[in-house]
Design goal:
By secondary structure, the chain is of the alpha/beta class. The chain has 2 domains: 91-316, Rossmann fold, CATH 3.40.50; 354-601, no CATH class. It has helices at residues 15-54, 64-87, 105-113, 139-143, 208-219, 236-248, 264-277, 301-316, 318-375, 384-394, 397-405, 410-419, 426-456, 459-465, 477-500, 506-512, 514-525, 535-555, 557-593, 600-615, and strands at 93-99, 131-134, 152-158, 173-175, 182-187, 195-199, 223-229, 251-259, 284-289.
Length: 616
């Protein structure tokens, strides 16, 4: 018959067959796309984790402690929850039971599994050891370091029996002794497969370590079971955590424990109003009435039946579990993006503060360089010893008086100077070295004192300096200055020697001597009379004239101008290097405190990528 396939041979495909084939062919494609998206997401999150590891906030700025804590918490949540969950989207949900001291968390957990697992004591803080209860089939998910990798693992076996009198939060599990930073793992068939229950320390514990671990565990949760009491449901600490849950869009069940029957309606209504006002209107509210405990410290099963049914319903619904995990994960990534933006702001503030401190140091030493430069240009160095040694070199004071009375005799005086045997020039060089060294040392000390003062007026700079005193020059600086000046003087001699090679006046400059011409060039470099007054102008001016005339007679006017400019530029460069080395003592503090970090713009780009991942 037409249209009926023969036995053993395929017939023509029908429309239904084609539809089924198309549908089946899209399944691997979609699975491949989902796997690729997951791989890309994990790579992005791993890169984000590496970025956080480089965020260093060393400067003491307002709010920096909060910023540092926020960076640490962001890194911890990536390690403890976000990355493990993204790598294992099908892992069992982790429901963390948290709440205030004495709210009844451990008693609630015992009631959920139907027998004592944790033992609450009269001594506070109560739960000291976080206990993770899971179905035996889910053990592999929690025994390795997949989730909460910084916490050790201790395997326990569930024990029964009444709690010992005045027990100080002794876990009712046998096995190894647990350290404070370990999870006690206990497999129990009463826990529904697909959901694990973790009894956390008190969020308001008197123990700092307990509070830290409680925050860490809550940040690693897929859903929260938050326990409070009729007397304490409005306390500030629980609400801060609940508001954080609202910001993360995490699934929350609130258990109102020990509610007197007469007050149940009123208290429950007030708490629901508060939850709705704070964006937690979707949170499930479970009421546990105030009832006597049995001899084992257990609540009647009926008091927790609604909560247990809710947990079992979640465990039985694979799609529902996936939705909860995705919702919590996206909320955590959204919060992570906000933390990256905050980290970028903190890094920017640190960089701006570092630039301000660097500017303070550079400004102080730059001003010192300017004052040294002025002192080497305005004739100030020609006072005192330098002037006396130069006069000794070229003649007596009578020489200058004659020169001032009749400047026309200058040429004859210069000629006589060349014909005569000049006095040693070394004393002039030594006097210049001593005078210039004193100026540089004084200005470097002023710059150090000014930089130290500015930094200590800033909390960030004060922390960098600590108890070290950088307000003076560094050890050995005086020797370094003297060596640099002598090197400059030697360089001038080489300039003169090079300039005089092949000159027709070579015999004249040789008769005068390299040192004598070098001394004359130094005098010209320092010869501008700005800042001198009265007799000093005449004396220094005459000094400059004789030095310049000597050099011009040997090399010519243009060459002298070039030599003086080169000598002055080299001196300024050497002084700048000396001051830069001194300034570096301060800048080294900044560089040591702030190693290379991810730029703020890169952190903001990462925040945008995380926001897109959460939205997708």
């Amino acid at each position: 018959m037409p249209g009926v396939p023969r036995p053993g041979r395929p017939g023509p495909p029908t429309c239904h067959d084609e539809a089924v084939s198309d549908h089946e062919s899209t399944i691997p494609a979609r699975a491949g796309q989902a796997a690729a998206r997951q791989i890309n997401a994990v790579e992005l999150l791993e890169s984000a984790r590496r970025d956080l590891a480089t965020v260093v906030l060393p400067l003491d700025l307002p709010g920096v402690e909060d910023a540092r804590r926020d960076v640490r918490n962001a890194a911890a949540q990536l390690d403890d929850y976000i990355l493990p969950r993204y790598r294992s989207l099908d892992a069992p949900l982790l429901a963390v039971v948290g709440g205030s001291t004495g709210a009844g968390k451990s008693t609630l957990v015992n009631a959920l599994v139907g027998h004592p697992v944790t033992r609450a004591g009269a001594i506070r803080p109560t739960t000291r050891q976080p206990i993770l209860l899971h179905h035996p089939a889910d053990a592999a998910w929690f025994e390795d370091q997949r989730v909460l990798p910084t916490l050790g693992r201790v395997r326990g076996t569930v024990l029964a029996g009444p709690p010992p009198a005045q027990a100080d939060s002794i876990p009712a599990v046998g096995g190894e002794t647990a350290a404070v930073t370990s999870l006690v793992l206990a497999g129990d068939p009463a826990v529904p497969a697909g959901v694990a229950v973790l009894d956390a320390p008190d969020v308001d514990s008197v123990s700092d370590e307990n509070r830290r671990i409680a925050g860490q565990l809550l940040a690693a949760a897929d859903l929260w079971i938050f326990v409070t009491t009729a007397n304490r449901y409005a306390d500030a600490v629980p609400w801060r955590l609940l508001l954080d849950a609202a910001a993360r869009d995490i699934t929350v069940a609130v258990v109102l424990d020990r509610v007197p029957p007469a007050a149940e309606d009123e208290v429950a209504a007030d708490l629901r109003t508060m939850l709705e006002r704070q964006g937690l209107g979707s949170a499930r509210l479970f009421i546990v009435p105030e009832v006597p405990l049995d001899l084992e410290g257990m609540l009647p099963p009926a008091t927790v039946a609604p909560l247990l049914a809710w947990l079992r319903g979640i465990a039985a619904d694979a799609a529902g579990r996936s939705a909860i995990a995705r919702r919590t994960l996206n909320g955590a990534i959204k919060g992570l993006a906000a933390r990256f933006t905050a980290a970028a702001d903190a890094v920017s503030a640190q960089q701006e503060a570092a630039r301000h401190l660097e500017h303070d140091a550079s400004s102080a030493y730059g001003d010192a360089a300017g004052r040294i430069q002025a002192a080497t240009r305005d004739g100030a160095l020609l006072r005192g010893e330098v002037l006396a040694r130069w006069q000794d070199f070229v003649g007596t004071g009578e020489f200058f008086r004659v020169m001032e009375q009749n400047i026309g005799r200058m040429r004859d005086r210069v000629g006589a100077f060349f014909r005569g045997e000049p006095a040693p020039a070394v004393r002039v060089e030594t006097a210049i070295e001593t005078g210039l060294q004193a100026v540089i040392l004084d200005e470097a000390a002023n710059a150090a004192e000014e930089t130290d003062r500015r930094w200590r007026s800033d909390p960030a700079g004060r922390r960098l300096l600590g108890t070290d005193d950088l307000s003076g020059t560094s050890p050995g600086f005086a020797d370094a200055v003297a060596a640099e000046i002598r090197a400059w003087q030697g360089s001038l001699m080489e300039l003169i020697r090079t300039e005089g090679q092949g000159k027709r006046t070579q015999a004249r400059w040789l008769s005068f001597g390299i040192n004598g011409l070098g001394a004359a060039l130094m005098i010209v470099v320092f010869s501008m009379t700005a800042g001198l007054t009265g007799l000093e102008i005449g004396v220094a001016g005459g000094t400059a004239v004789i030095g310049q005339r000597v050099l011009e007679a040997v090399f010519g006017e243009d060459a002298v101008r070039r030599l003086a400019r080169t000598a002055r530029t080299e001196l300024q460069e050497r002084c700048r290097r000396l001051l830069d080395d001194e300034r570096q003592r301060f800048l080294d503090r900044l560089e040591a405190a702030a190693p290379d970090v991810v730029p703020a713009k890169d952190l903001r780009a990462r925040a945008a990528a995380l926001t897109a991942l959460a939205a997708g």
